Amino acid sequence: MRGGVALLLVLSFLCANVNAQKELKDFYLNRSLKQDNQQFQFKILDDDKHGVWFYRKNKFYHWYKAQHVLSTQGASSGVLLHGVFEGFYESKQLAQRGRFSKGLKSGEWLYWREDGTLRRSESWKNGVMRGDQNMYDESGQVVETITLKRWSSERRVADSLIQTKGNKERITLFDEQGKVSAREDYKNGKLHGDVRSYEDGKLTDLKRYKYGEELVKEEKNKEKKEEKAEPEEKTPFFKRIFSRKEKSEKEPKEKREKKAREKSDKEKSERKKKKAKENTDPEKQ
To answer: The pTM is what?
Structure first.
């Protein structure tokens, strides 16, 4: 009996000791400081846990040192943040809340105004923003949404949608009924591609651009080629003969006389050549 009581006392003492050590460690890992006009409360990475073996240069790592929270791209020089992070205004109102995983932002992050209304929401995964980033007005309505994908992004503001992929961009405008009213393609900030206008969802105008200049000459050349390709109407045979006769009659008298003289001189010259040839031919002599 006494042995059982003693064993219970030992076990309870050990449990109390473990809990005390856990509370002490949690207290050690919690940090609080004032920075950027906010009061930060957060946790740092436990020494017993493995840190970062390899830092990725395209990511920002958040770390704590000398009563400051800092962020560095591709490296750290202090204790990494790990766990819940909260920021408060001087009025004790919540300003931001999120979570870190070994120095990288992870999960949902929320940001508030000083009056407590939600200002922005973000979604993070291993230090990279993914999914929707929403902006809210003071009434709580979404006024802007940015959707981030691996190689592209979409930004919706009021009645416009901006799609970006590399150096290319497409802007789509919508009317009050939500139908497409215009669509423009850009490359390196200049119009490049189709510019379309719609009315009641139907295409009404189409223009093409190349590096900011409208392709008008190309369309004109096409029109000329189409005109040349059209077959010409043939003039009847007798009509062509009479038209030539009419043209000859319309010619001035001096021009007709000149042509007659040239014709006569040509005939005389041919006769002389023929006669000279006959005189030099030995067979005829």
So the answer is: 0.63
